[in-house]
């Protein structure tokens, strides 16, 4: 593809994306295809001769689009949001256009130094403790962030263990509400799922119990284990429960255990002064991560990770084969982010976060968070005013958990989702099903939330009417 051809097709692609943004609200939120439909519509063999780019765009409409669940749809309320935005898309395109592989400072100094600056900007926007400044990195996901935090913690607890292999029993601590990525990290790191100790939660708030944490650590130490890491969560995936990080941090300090704080979804809310409380206790954390790719207008993938001390992280992950030796690395004056992550290679993700922060400014980012919070509160009021529904009282962010009192919650959700009008997911708390409505797509406004509520209430009426008639 020559630069001229690229220009022509590129303009069409940008038009396609802009058209998509304009029409996404008219598409069914949840993809209506059956398993195998997309696969069956694709040729089994690759083309022998090049086909040109128009054919790709045609198939995008014909084959791909029907198989898309529209995360940017204004009525997408499932999981947590995965925000996309114009500046992020363009920043990502620039990253692709430069085609840089930024594993070392020397392989593109700007790729490293822009990342250092922009992740510092984010620390500033969120009001993070000073210790994290200058010690941030962009990871692909919160799952990677907790894995590298665990490896750093293992390195700090037993300096040769990550390199030579673990000996003895190492334990990590979390609650039943902690994201599954912690157990995955424990499996990958060789700690083992059996050594993920599940700490009790308060039955009402679902927040981790720091006293039980302390007792569990003490018992493990007495039994000869080495406690390595505690994972606290600010805004759990299930219900946005908030662990008491200050009290957990005090236990970690006392016992010399690494504290990782996972605020994948909720952490970015700290751009607003009224949400700075989500940072409470971070001065006691060894590592902290939050995902601009969830609720901060940045296309997947972009997880911000900060560490208090980079030495154990780099100690655990740095390997220097001959082909990566260069003067800048050897003289030690630069950061090589390959030592802060699992893969060697890395793309220029900082460009999209830089574009987002510059386009919206702190003001625009705050307004986005506040809009989500306001709309979630509106939904909670609407559902709470209806005797047929129960709403969980805790909804400080963009997620509301609720359930119908007189019809089956999962049946209600499945009917709503199948309609394509909106998309919800569910969770279970103490065995009970709750529906989750997470507001946060940039396109979502008050009419969409009111329409969602009207649709939910009408479907409940239809279901309970059918039950009464039956
Ligand atoms: C979404 C989520 C994760 C996983 O995020 P990825 O970036 O997809 O790995 C981890 N922890 C919490 C609390 C989450 O909500």
Question: What topology does this entry show?
Answer:
Elements: H1 3-23, H2 37-40, H3 53-64, H4 86-98, H5 109-126, E1 136-139, H6 142-157, H7 161-164, E2 170-175, H8 181-189, E3 196-199, H9 210-222, E4 226-233, H10 245-255, E5 258-262, E6 287-290, H11 292-295, E7 303-307, H12 310-317, H13 327-331, H14 350-384, E8 389-391, E9 399-404, H15 409-419, E10 425-429, E11 432-438, H16 446-469
Parallel strand pairs: 2-3, 2-4, 4-5, 5-6
Antiparallel strand pairs: 1-7, 6-7, 8-9, 9-11, 10-11
The structure holds pyridoxal-5'-phosphate (PLP).
Pyridoxal-5'-phosphate (PLP) binds near residues 143, 236, 264 and 303.
Sheet with the most strands: spatial strand order: 1-7-6-5-4-2-3
Cα(first) to Cα(last) distance is 64 Å
Strand tally, please?
A: 11
Share of β-strand residues: 5-15%
Which stretches are poorly predicted, pLDDT < 50 over at least 5 residues? none
CATH level-3 fold name of the domain at 100-347: Aspartate Aminotransferase, domain 2
CATH class of the domain at 100-347: Alpha Beta
Any idea what the shape is?
Answer: globular
Helix and strand sequence? HHHHHEHHEHEHEHEEHEHHHEEHEEH
Question: Count the helices. How many?
Answer: 16
Mean pLDDT score: 96
Largest sheet: 7 strands, mixed
Share of residues in helices? 40-55%
| Ligand kinds | pyridoxal-5'-phosphate
CATH architecture of the domain at 100-347: 3-Layer(aba) Sandwich
């Amino acid at each position: 593809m020559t630069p001229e051809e690229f220009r022509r097709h590129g303009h069409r692609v940008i038009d396609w994306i802009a058209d998509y943004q304009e029409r996404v609200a008219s598409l069914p939120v949840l993809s209506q295809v059956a398993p195998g439909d997309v696969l069956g519509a694709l040729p089994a063999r690759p083309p022998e001769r090049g086909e040109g780019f128009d054919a790709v765009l045609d198939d995008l409409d014909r084959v791909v689009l029907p198989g898309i669940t529209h995360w940017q749809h204004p009525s997408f309320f499932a999981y947590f949001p995965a925000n996309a935005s114009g500046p992020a898309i363009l920043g990502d395109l620039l990253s692709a256009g430069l085609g840089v592989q930024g594993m070392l400072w020397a392989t593109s100094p700007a790729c490293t130094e822009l990342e250092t600056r922009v992740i510092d900007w984010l620390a500033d926007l969120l009001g993070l403790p000073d210790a994290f400044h200058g010690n941030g990195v962009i990871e692909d996901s919160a799952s990677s962030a907790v894995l590298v935090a665990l490896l750093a913690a293992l390195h700090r607890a037993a300096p040769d263990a990550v390199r030579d292999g673990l000996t003895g029993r190492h334990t990590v601590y979390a609650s039943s509400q902690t994201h599954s990525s912690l157990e995955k990290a424990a499996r990958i790191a060789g700690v083992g799922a059996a050594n993920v100790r599940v700490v009790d939660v308060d039955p009402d708030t679902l927040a981790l119990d720091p006293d039980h944490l302390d007792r569990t650590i003490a018992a493990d130490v007495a039994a000869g284990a080495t406690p390595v890491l505690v994972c606290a969560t600010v805004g759990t995936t299930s219900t946005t429960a908030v662990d008491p990080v200050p009290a957990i941090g005090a236990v970690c300090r006392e016992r010399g255990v690494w504290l990782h704080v996972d605020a994948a979804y909720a952490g970015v809310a700290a751009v607003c002064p009224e949400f700075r409380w989500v940072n409470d206790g971070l001065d006691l954390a060894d590592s902290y991560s939050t995902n601009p790719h969830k609720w901060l207008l940045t296309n997947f993938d972009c997880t911000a990770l900060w560490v208090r001390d980079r030495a154990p992280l780099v100690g655990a992950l740095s390997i220097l084969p001959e082909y990566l030796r260069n003067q800048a690395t050897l003289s030690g004056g630069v950061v090589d982010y390959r030592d802060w992550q699992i893969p060697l290679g890395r793309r220029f993700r900082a460009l999209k976060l830089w574009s987002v922060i510059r386009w919206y400014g702190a003001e625009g980012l705050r307004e986005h968070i506040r809009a989500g919070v306001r709309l979630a509160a509106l939904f909670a009021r609407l559902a709470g005013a209806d005797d047929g529904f129960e709403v969980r009282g805790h909804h400080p962010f963009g997620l509301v958990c609720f359930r119908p009192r007189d019809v089956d919650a999962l049946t209600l959700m499945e009917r709503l989702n199948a309609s394509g009008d909106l998309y919800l997911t569910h969770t279970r708390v103490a065995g009970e099903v709750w529906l989750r409505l997470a507001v946060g797509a940039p396109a979502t406004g008050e009419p969409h939330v009111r329409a969602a509520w009207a649709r939910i209430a009408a479907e409940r009426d239809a279901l309970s009417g059918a039950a009464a008639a039956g």
